[in-house]
Amino acid sequence: MSRLTVVAYTFGVLFFLVSCAFSVFYGYKVMSHDLPEEGNEIKGYNYHFVLVPEELDNDYWRLVEKGAQEAAKEYGVLLEYVGPKQANIDEHLKTIEMSMASKVDGIITQGLSDEQFTPLINRVVERVPVITIDTDASNSNRMAYIGTDNYYSGYLAGKALIEDTKGQANVAIITGSFYANHQQLRVQGFRDAVMSEQGIKIITMEESEISRVRAAEKAYQILKDYPEVNAFYGTSALDGIGIAQVVEKYKKTDQVYIIGFDNLPETLDYLSKGTIKATIVQEPYEMGYRAVQMMIDLIEGKTVPPVVHTNTRVLRAADLPVSHLGGREAGY
Ligand code: BGC
After folding, report:
1. In the sheet that 278-281 helps form, which strands lie side by side, from edge to edge?
2. Going by CA atoms, what residue is nearest to atom 9 of ligand 1?
3. What is the pTM of this model?
4. Which pLDDT score, from 0 to 100, does residue 239 have?
5. Residue 54 to residues 62, 268, 298, 314, 326, Cα–Cα distance (Å)
6. What is the pLDDT of residues 212-254, one digit of tens each?
7. CA pair distance 230, 238, nearest whole angstrom
8. From CA 202, how far away is CA 14, in angstroms rounded?
9. Can you tell me the distance from the alpha carbon of 192 to that of 200, in angstroms, rounded to the nearest whole number?
10. Which parts of the chain register pLDDT below 70?
11. How many CB atoms within 10 Å of residue 224?
C-alpha cells in the first residue's frame, strides 16, 4: 500500500467516525426535542407534569396553559406544554404515549373520543396519573375531569338562541369536530334545548376541524346552499370568528344571528360590533390552574372529586366589557 493510500484511508476512516458522532448527537437532539425529561431527575421541582392539548398554537389553549403555568410556579412543578402544533389526533395520542414512557409524574390532557383515547388512557393510568381537561373520556379510568359541563353549555346556547330569535330561526351548526366527545355534547345539549320549539329548525351541520379558515369556508358554502339559513351556532372557540368574517363580508349582519363559544379577543370584538350576538363563556385559565392543583392532591393521596365543572355562562354585547381570561384571572 502506498503512503498516499494510507493517508487517504486514514482520512476516510476519521471522516466516517466524525459523521457518525454528529449523526448520533443531532439525531438524539431532534428525537428528544419535544420529549419531556424523566420526572424524578428534574432538580429543583417537586413534580413534573405535562399538559397535552389538541392544538398548541390555539389562543384558547394558551389560556389553559397560562393558568397551569401559574399554578406550577406556585407549587414548584415543572409543567411542559407539548402536543400537535395544529390539531392532529395521531400526534396527540403519540405525545401522551411518549410522556408516559418518559415517566412524568402526571399527564393532563383531553379525552377527545372514546374509541381512540379511552384505551390509551386506561393503559397510561396504570403507570402515570391522568386528569382529563376540557373534554372528558368519562368511560375511561382517568382519575378526574376538570372543565365545562359540555352538555349543559350546549343547552345554554340553545336557550339563548331561542330567547334572542324569539323562537324563530333556521339554524346551521358548525362544530369543531364530529367525533370529539365535547363537541358532540355541545350539539346534543343544543338540540335538546330547541327540540320542542316549533319555530326553530336545524338545517345542516358541518365540521371546522377547529380551524377558523375552515369554519369560514363552511359558513360561506352554507349561505350559498341554504339561503333559508338565518342563524349559526359555532361550537368551538374559532368557529364563531370564522362565521362572523363571512357574514360581515356578505353584509348579512342584520339578517343572520350568530352564537359562538368562548371569549377570545376577536370574539369580543365581533360581539361588541354586534356581528356575534352571544357566546358561551368557559374558563380555560381556571381549568389549567385547578388541574395542576388536583394532580398534586392526587399524587399526595388527598381525595379529589372525579368530576369538577368550571363555570359556563352566556355573554352578550350588553354584558361587555369583560376580561377575556375570565375566572380567577379576572378576579371573580
Ligand atoms: C374547546 C376546545 C377546542 C377549542 C378550539 C374550545 O371551545 O373547548 O376543546 O380545542 O375550542 O378552538
Report:
1. 200-207, 169-175, 231-234, 257-261, 278-281, 313-316
2. 134
3. 0.87
4. 98
5. 11, 23, 24, 25, 21
6. 999 999 999 999 999 999 999 999 999 999 999 999 999 888 9
7. 19
8. 71
9. 12
10. 1-41, 323-332
11. 10
The bridge status of strand 313-316 relative to strand 278-281 is antiparallel
CA atoms within 13 A on the CB side of 123: 12
Residue 221 DSSP class: H
Residue 74's pLDDT is what? 98
CA-CA-CA-CA torsion for 117, 119, 121, 124, nearest 10 degrees? -140
Q: What are phi and psi of 67, to 5 degrees?
A: -65, -45
Residue 226 vs residues 28, 268, 319: alpha-carbon distances, Å: 54, 28, 32
* Residue 326: per-residue pLDDT: 52
Side chain identity at 213, as an amino acid letter?
V
pLDDT at position 322 = 73
Grid cell, residue 80, equals 411542559
Does any ligand 1 atom lie closer than 6 A to the CB of residue 236? Answer: yes
The residue whose CB lies within 8 Å of the most ligand 1 atoms, and thus the one to mutate among 262, 287, 315, is: 262
Q: Measured from the CA of 261, which atom of ligand 1 is nearest? A: 7
C-alpha grid cell, residue 204: 345542516
Closest C-alpha among 327, 300, 284 to residue 146: 284
Distance between CA 286 and CA 312 in Å, rounded?
12
